[in-house]
# Entry
Amino acid sequence: MPQVQQEWAAAVQNPLIACEQDYDTEQQTQLAEQRIPLLNHDQRSAFDLIMQAVEAKSGQCFFLHGPGGTGKTFVYNTLCPSLRGKVKIVICVASSGIASLLLKGGRTVHSTFKVPLDIHESSSCNIRKNSDLAELICCADLIIWDEASMLHCHIHEAVNRVFQNICNSDALFGDVPVVFGGDFRQILPVIEKDSRAEIVGACIQRSYIWPSLQVLHLHQNMRLNVDIEEERAFAQWQLDIGHGKHMDNSDKIILPPILDWKRTLLMVLFGIFILACHTFSPLSISISQSA
# Structure
């Protein structure tokens, strides 16, 4: 039989690494050059600190904190082309599928890092040490993890342990820089039948990981800069809710007049009904055929 002429495992590149490096570097550089000047002061400060950590290979991990509308996603999507334009590997994940769609190349945390659905304090992710995914993680220059505040801290800790294992390092996340992001005014970990204290205790702020993270704050709410008064008022109302305002004595949220949910619901349902009638009625079919 013919003999093997070379070591094919070394000749064939890791497909996951190849995929992450398959970006047009010139296009990514141009995109970064367009976005960097648009960063406000807080965003630019965070961007510079993260870029310095990546370039220095310091292994520093961050938590980008800011209310909705302060531009966390814009910072992520500026970091990505800035690094990919230099042929660096950026892995983008998010705690939900919707949030992952806002990141270029984003996927869910559970899908990317093989996080088990049933999580506890000693859980481990199903990543083999000699797998392509393990090699990709070890080669990553930066990991962006959006909406990290939504997940139980046992998930962050499980990912930390598997990173340390596959990277042969006791440093936080195996010395791979990670940028978490989120807003603790929004959805906290959802734990069935647990008390408020137990839910708060499940947050990443209660994890042993938290003291090692450098917290970067975004303060300027870009939604408050719009010219439409109703949108500014709604954005301000959202911020106030996060500070415990607009609540009655039973801790129920008091909706502003602009959020008359009954009227809004009727308008939506009526609009769907009219659209359905127009789309599927014989009259609309005959009109479309004659047109």
Observations:
- The beta strands are 62-65, 90-94, 107-108, 142-146, 178-182, 214-217.
- The chain is about 45% helix and 10% strand.
